[in-house]
Each structure stands twice: as C-alpha cells, then as structure tokens.
Amino acid sequence: MAGYPLARTMKLYITAGSPYARMARIVILEKGLESRVEIIAAQTRLADSPYYLINPSGRVPYLIRDDGVGLEESAVICAYLDHLDGKPAFDPPAGDQAWEARRLEGLARSMVDGLAVWSREIVRPENERSPTIIRHEAHRSERMANLWETAIDHPLMRGALNLAQITLACGLGLEARNPDLRWRPGHPKLCDWFDRLAARTSFAATAPPSA
Ligand SMILES: N[C@@H](CCC(=O)N[C@@H](CS)C(=O)NCC(=O)O)C(=O)O
Fold this sequence. Notes:
alpha+beta
C-alpha cells in the first residue's frame, strides 16, 4: 500500500558473533535492505534447539527468502541480497580481474574458516578443548596475517568495497572474540586497512561482541 513501509518479508538467522552471518548483515546495510530483512538471533550448538526445525543444518547465516525458500552459505546469501535490486555492487569485475577477485576472496575465506574453527574450540568446555587444534589454527592465522600484510596492497583490496574485503574484515574482527588472536603486531598495513574499514557504518553496526 502506498505510503506504508514494505513488510519485512525475508528473515536472516544469525548469531551476534558469527563472522559468516556478519558478512550477510553488512551486505544488508550496504544495500539498504534493513526494511526488507528481519534479523533473528538463532540458538546454535544447543541440543534440541528450536532453530533446527527452521534450518536442519543448525548453521548461520540462513536466509528465508520472500517465497519461503531457505538459503545457506554466506557467499550465496550475500550474492542473493546484492542482486535483489538488479544492481549488484559486489559481483566480481569483468575479465582477468574476476579471477583476481575470486582468488582474494578465497584467501580471505580460508583465513576466516581457520579462525572460526579456533573460535569454536575455545568456547568448548575446557576439558574438551584440543590444544593441537588450537595450536594448528593459531599458526595458520599467523601465516595468513603475514600473507595479508603484503596482499592488502592489491588494488582490489584498496578499491570499492567487495566480498574479499568484507570476508577478510569479518575474519580479522574475530580478535574481539578470541584474546589469543593477535594478528596486529608486525602487520601495520593490515591494521591500518582494518581500522579504516571497521569504522564504516555497516561494519561498526555489526561488530561482534567481545568474548
Ligand atoms: N560455510 C558456511 C559456514 C557457516 C558456519 O559455520 N556458521 C557457524 C557460525 S560461525 C555456525 O552456524 N555454527 C553452528 C554449528 O556448527 O552448529 C558459511 O559461509 O555460511
């Protein structure tokens, strides 16, 4: 009806600390979709969570579209939301740069995946935590931070906002959840890049709560 706000017909299930859900939340804010998507906190990793009746995998993010169909996987959800207005802002550029964009997004995702495993490990009861996994992920994150200190100068990481940038920043933002994730020392360019992006409205509004 003219003059009335659009009903929030889509639902995005999230947890406040999830870097993957944060990617989708950032795209919602960047694309001005707040009035169309209801954000709902899901109870993950809980025996018999009612959320499992909505999304049997139990993972977030999970987007229920207008037509009732549910989507998993942050990259798929981000692309879907980005395409809703027919003017995608985050599609890879044309030509050779497309592979560069995908390569960088893959590198960023690789770092996030490792950091997510680490984050998951440290919230387990202490007697169930694996020092081997924690050490493995800590070392992986050091190698990836070293790599990104150089790769952050790539024009695609410095240009218009894209999914590689969103993905990497959501990973680095996990420092708020994991006090042992110390990617900053020795990485001044990465610090500067991250701090600028973290100040952007969509990033500041979705920053994960500290552990
Ligand atoms: N590849 C998935 C990963 C999603 C994922 O692992 N989400 C975590 C939160 S960071 C989750 O829902 N964990 C709950 C569980 O494993 O039961 C994506 O990109 O969306």
